[in-house]
Amino acid sequence: MNLRTNAQSDVGRVRPENEDSFLCSDELHLYAVADGIGGLPAGGQASQMAIAVLEAFFAQHPAGEPADLQRVIEQINDKVFLLGRVLSPQFGIGSTLTFAHLTGVKLNIGHVGDSAALRLRANLLEQLTTDHTIETELREREARGESISLLMENRNALTRCIGQPPPILGHCAKHTVLPHDRYLLASDGITRYVAMAEIEEIMQQAAAPEDAARTLINRANERGGLDNSTAVVLFFD
Fold first, then answer.
1. Looking at residue 41, which CATH number applies to its domain?
2. CA angle 85-79-154, nearest 5°?
3. Number of independent structural domains in the chain
4. Which of 14, 79, 181, 187 has most Cβ atoms within 10 angstroms of its Cβ?
5. Which tens digits make up the pLDDT trace of 34-62?
């Protein structure tokens, strides 16, 4: 299979700076999105540190070998947590992190927060990660028959993030790549403002990864550009 990739990021139309960071390394077969948490100081530095530690880990990791993704997440979290003790002793700092490491035909995904990994297969879009938000976790409890109460203003609050006091538990999964699969790693500046049906259509119709990334970001900005938006796109031909 041939792999084509592209990554793009945009500040949007409201925020004064872009606190998203990304990695698109065909050399390391490593792709990632990190979104600094709004409401905490130094979101950009948190996301940059998360990406830097991730890249450094895999630069030293044997090529083509799967890694212990939970251990990777723990190491990244420790570094960002310690940085937060310096930059913001009272509040700390935080970031989401969603990354994919390709080993052969396996795409190994690690995830914390509410950025997302999505897969288009046979023209159907599926989210491969679960948002670590109050709303998602309460809905899971509701599905188990538990009674819940959810205030709308709190529904998007994160229940875990990179930079939190240890320990941290990430979502780790392994997926087999098939010919013609298309993958998207995106910050919530895209997934919150562009409907899944629209993302599906954009990923279907794009002739190249850069077309998909550009269109997704443009669509988020058309909706007001209320947040930074980042897209890392992988096409397996």
1. 3.60.40.10
2. 70
3. 1
4. 187
5. 999 987 889 999 999 999 999 999 999 99
